[in-house]
Amino acid sequence: MMRNVNPVFRLVSVTLLVLVNVLFVHAEKGDFGAWELKSGHGGMSCGTVGFAEKSITIEFWMYLNSADVEKIAILGTSGPDAGFLVSVRANSANAGALELRLFAKDTQKNTAHFYIPREYFVDKWVHVAYVISAEEEKAYAYLNGGYFAEKDAIGGYFGNSTTALGIGQWWSDPKPYGKLAEIRIWNIARTGDEIAANYNRPLTGTEDGLYIYYNFDDFAQIISNVANPGTNNGSLSPAATWSDVHAYEVLSAIPANLSLTANTLTWNGTAESFELEVVEKGTNNVVKTDVVTGNSYSLAELGLDGNKEYYANVRAKNALFYSGWATTNSNTSGIEDINSSNLTVFTRNNAIIVNSDVVRKLNVFAVDGRLVRSVDLSVGENVINNISRGMYLIDKQKVVVY
Questions:
Q1: Nearest alpha carbon to residue 228 among 253, 207, 202, 198
Q2: How do residues 158-205 score in pLDDT, each as one tens digit?
Q3: Ramachandran bin of 8, using left for φ above 0, alpha for ψ from -120 to 50, beta for the remaining angles
Q4: Could you give the 3-state DSSP secondary structure of residue 93?
Q5: How many helices (H) and strands (E) does the chain have?
Q6: Mind listing the pLDDT tens digit for each residue in 48-100?
Q7: Topology of 256-327 in CATH?
Q8: Under CATH, which number does the domain 32-252 receive?
Q9: What are the extents of the domains in the chain?
Q10: Gap between the Cα atoms of 312 and 289, Å rounded
Q11: pTM of this prediction?
Q12: Euclidean distance between CA atoms 252 and 198, whole angstroms
C-alpha cells in the first residue's frame, strides 16, 4: 500500500451524493422531512394493507395546532371489525375531552385502544408508536420513544381490513391540518428499545418487518413506499392541485459536500449540532465519535495509523430530529471515472441491468448513502443479481427492484 510521507493517513476526498427532486420541492436523500397538510387538502390514499401477521407496529410524527384540533382522523384502515384507526376523539372517561385515540381490536374483537391527552400532542411535535403483540398478547403506546401505557390484547391484532389506508383522511371525518413525518407500519411488534433507537432518525427502508415507510424525500403527487417500492404508494389528493395544498418541510438537513483531507474533515450544512464518526476502511471499525457545533473537525490529534485508510460519516441534529448519515465513503455518481461515456440502468426480473460502453466500476448505493454493491462492468449488458427488493441510487438515478 502506498504510504504518505507527511499526512497522518491515506484517504480520498469525495463529495456527498445528492439527489434533487422536481416539482416545486427540493428534497435531499437523507433529510428528515415533514409533510404539511394545508387547507383544502384531501389527504393521501395508500391502498390496502395486506399482511396477515397478528402483530403490528404503527409509528408517526405529528404536529397539530391547537386551533385545528377537533374530531379528526390521522391515519387508518378501520372497517367493521378489522384494521386500525388513529384519530382525535371525545373521551367519555375524561368529560368528553378531545384526545388522541389509538384504536384496533384483538383476535377476540376486544378493543385494544388508548387515549392520549391533548397536552401531549397539541402545538408540539410528538412521536407516537402503537404496538400490538401476538406473542405477548399486549398492546402498547409509546410517546417520543418512551413507554406511555399498555393493556391486554388477547391473541394479538385482529388483522387488516379491506379498507384502503387513508392518511390525513378517513371517510367523512374532518381532515387534520398540520404536519406528519416518518410514517411507518410494521408487521411485527417492535420493542420499546427498538422504537427508542431510531424513532427520531431516518430508516434505510430495508429493516426487518417494515411493511410501509413514507419518509417524503421523494415529495411529489405520488409518494413512494420506501419499504416495499411499487406497493402501497401514496396518492396525494386532489391530484390536480396537490402542490397548492400539500407541502414539504426539512426538519433536519443531511450535511453536504463532505471533504476529508489528512488533518481535517469539513462539510456544509446548518444544524444545532453534528454527530460524526471516523471509520477504518475494510473493517468498518469506528475509531472516533464526537459531537460538534461547527462545520469542521480536526483529525490531527487522533493518532490514526498512516498505513490504513479511513472515511467519515456526519449527520445533523435539529431539535428532536436527526438527518441521515452523510459519508465520504461514496462518490458523486457511483462510478470511478465520472467522465466516462454513456451508461443505461434499468431493472428486469428482479435484477438490475446495466448497459455500459466501456469497462468500468459501478457502485450501487442504498438511499441512505450506504454502499450496497461494487461491480466491475464489462462492455455491453451487465446483470446484477441477488439484490434485495428496494430502492437504490446508481449514477444519479433512482432504481427500484421489485
A1: 207
A2: 999 999 999 999 888 889 999 999 999 999 999 999 999 999 999 999
A3: alpha
A4: helix
A5: 2, 31
A6: 999 999 999 999 999 998 876 778 999 999 987 899 999 999 999 899 999 99
A7: Immunoglobulin-like (2.60.40)
A8: 2.60.120.200
A9: 32-252, 256-327, 343-401
A10: 10
A11: 0.76
A12: 15
